[in-house]
Design a protein that fits this description.
Elements lengths: L9 H11 L7 H19 L22 H25 L8 H31 L5 H21 L3 H21 L3 H24 L8 H16 L3 H15 L12 E2 L2 E2 L5 H30 L6 H12 L1 H25 L12 H30 L17 H20 L2 H4 L2 H28 L3 H22 L19 H26 L14 H7 L6 H7 L39 H8 L4
Antiparallel strand pairs: 1-2
Length: 618
């Protein structure tokens, strides 16, 4: 007999259709049209049409043997269609443009509302017959009973029968509390919570109209009235609840994975009151479990490879970075669902339907965003560690100048920019702003990350010989580090380091290590700048002149330039052909000798010598 049981869940089906087709934004017209189309398709599928043309074909009556899930769904959608039409007419009657027709619209709405109650009552009678013949589970009958009670109570409240409406809604609230308590999965629990939150304000309104003193205490009113009238309103209510508990104990043994762990924030649970959020948060929980499981082998492998080279550690870090893809994807989906719920609540203009004093959907959305940003920051920090580890130089006996890939420091700076952006968004969240210790902890990590970013950005400027900018960044890093120390001294216990998981641990030893690195980098940059152009702001070293003391020192100290060039690695190649140098004689060794007389021309006489004298010849 259990093989022929129908799996009909009225509340689950109604919630899915309402959420997907317009009621999230109170669009009753769209939902009514959807229900009309759905009933037409179900009639065609079940072959329940009344013939063609003028020929009328009477349908056979439904019995326990021939009834199917589709028949129950058809009755449910007929009821939903009539109810949505009544709500649409009520909304139209309240508009100023339809003031003349307001009475007619309200009368039509009452008829449609009464029709919806008729369809739901017919559905309940069929489900009771199926339950009596063991074709329907106790949970299925409880859900359709709750649906009928809610619809009937709303109709009575619309007719201003507040006392009867309060009794109907209180019994429905009691049954919903039983569903929440004994639900097999977290989704079923959230589903019952959604409907309980919806009828809570209606119970409070009816109690207020009846003049009750503690009209705000919905739980007490529901417990009081349901205990008196549940046996009258629901036939065999106690036996039905007992049967449901027994079925829940049997069904709950194999669905442990579908139970959502309690989310905690500052020692208090975070309420998840929506089935859509439960689905995505279950995926987040599974991804977190996978990350936790992957960390244990990674730690064991890291301990065994401690004496080996750093190649295996880099490989493990890259695998750890890839493990965050699943949880980030799940958290992104959860954030999208939470954002849609917040937007739907804002656009509909309705206030939170949760109980007074509890955390609403805005808080849950902020919590999900905080978890998303924390996991993203944790992934980016792990990626920075993996990059720095993969480019770490191997230890050698002879110290050499470190040659780093030019793309390393820009990549690290870009990742740290992403971390800073995430921390800034986290600082602006409402749940962080409400906690002073957490806000100070986030602020300390923000300034610490800025100090690290300035340190690595200084290396980028050193690579292009911009030493003045690099030293300015080193000074900024020192200021940020000083701010971090001042912020960490405010609180005694760090809420981020003590949380689970600690996505960004920060201790005083980390500050000391970064301070020593910044100090050493500042000294190194100053030495390189002085060797490059003597500390001039001009980046070009062509106009650089040697200081005066170099020329003065050469008068007193014999400088071995060949040895100096050899140590600098700039020694010139030796000449191919050696040339013997002739020693030069000093002036003291030169011997004085007489000047060589100039030759004299032979003497000439006569006319030729006279003519040569006239023309300037000798």
């Amino acid at each position: 007999m259990s093989e022929n049981k129908l799996s009909f869940r009225a509340l689950q089906l109604a919630n899915e259709q309402r959420t997907a087709y317009g009621l999230r934004y109170n669009d009753f017209t769209r939902y009514r049209k959807h229900c009309a189309n759905r009933t037409h398709r179900l009639r065609s599928t079940l072959k329940m049409t009344h013939g063609k043309g003028r020929e009328f074909k009477k349908l056979p009556p439904l019995s326990t043997d021939n009834i199917k899930d589709g028949n129950l769904e058809l009755l449910l959608f007929e009821s939903e269609r009539a109810w949505a039409y009544s709500q649409d007419l009520i909304t139209q009657s309240l508009q100023p443009a339809n003031e003349d027709q307001a009475g007619t619209l309200r009368h039509s709405a009452t008829g449609r509302f009464r029709r919806a109650v008729h369809w739901s009552t017919q559905l309940l009678s069929h489900c009771q017959s199926l339950y009596a013949s063991s074709h329907l589970s106790a949970e299925g009958l409880m859900q359709i009973t709750i649906y009928t009670l809610i619809l009937n109570g709303r109709f009575l409240r619309y007719r201003d029968s507040f006392e009867d409406a309060l009794i109907q809604l209180s019994v429905a609230r009691h049954l919903l509390d039983e569903l929440v308590e004994c639900a097999a999965t977290s989704r079923d629990q959230a589903l019952a919570t959604v409907f309980a939150d919806e009828i809570g304000p209606e119970i409070r309104y009816c109690a207020h109209e009846l003049g009750r003193e503690r009209a705000y205490d919905v739980d007490a009113i529901a417990a009081e009235l349901s205990e008196k009238h549940r046996g009258e309103i629901v036939e065999g209510c106690d036996a039905l609840i007992q049967k449901f508990r027994q079925e829940g104990e049997v069904a709950g043994k194999g669905v442990g994975k579908k139970k959502l762990a309690t989310l905690m924030w500052e020692g208090q649970p975070v309420p998840v009151r929506n089935p859509e959020l439960v689905d995505v948060l279950l995926r987040v929980q599974e991804a977190e479990a996978k990350i936790t499981q992957s960390r244990e082998p990674a730690r064991a492998e890291g301990a065994s490879d401690k004496g080996r080279k750093g190649k295996s550690g880099s490989h493990g870090s890259k695998k750890g970075v890839a493990a965050y893809d699943a949880i980030l994807l799940a958290l992104s989906d959860a954030e999208e669902v939470g954002r849609k719920l917040v937007e739907a609540q804002q656009n509909s203009g309705s206030s939170s339907t949760s109980a007074a004093g509890t955390r609403d959907i805005h808080f849950v959305h902020a919590y999900i965003v905080y978890q998303l940003l924390s996991r993203r920051i944790q992934r980016d920090l792990l990626l920075v560690s993996a990059l720095l580890t993969s480019h770490r130089p191997q230890a050698s006996a002879k110290p050499k100048k470190e040659h780093v890939d030019a793309r390393l420091y820009p990549a690290v700076v870009k990742l740290l920019d992403t971390v800073i952006q995430g921390l800034a968004q986290m600082r602006n969240l409402s749940i962080v702003d409400e906690s002073p210790d957490l806000a100070a902890a986030v602020e300390a990590r923000l300034t610490f990350t800025k100090a690290r970013r300035c340190s690595y950005l200084a290396h980028c400027y050193v690579a292009v010989k911009k030493y003045a900018e690099a030293l300015s960044l080193i000074q900024h890093a020192t200021i940020y580090l000083r701010e971090t120390r001042s912020t960490l001294s405010i609180f005694s216990e760090d809420p981020i380091s003590s949380a689970s998981p600690a996505y960004y641990p920060l201790t005083s030893s980390d500050l000391d290590a970064l301070e020593s690195v910044i100090t050493q980098d500042g000294l190194t940059i100053k030495n390189e700048w002085f060797a490059y152009n003597g500390g001039s702001i001009d980046a070009d070293n062509k106009t650089y002149k040697k200081p005066l003391f170099f020329d003065i020192a050469l008068n007193y100290v014999q400088l071995d330039m060949d040895r100096l060039l050899e140590r600098a690695g700039k020694a010139s190649a030796p000449p191919l052909v050696p040339v013997q140098a002739v020693p030069a004689k000093s002036r003291l060794e030169e011997v004085a000798r007489p000047k060589t007389p100039e030759p004299q021309a032979p003497a000439k006489g006569g006319l030729s010598s006279l003519l040569e004298g006239w023309w300037g010849r000798k």
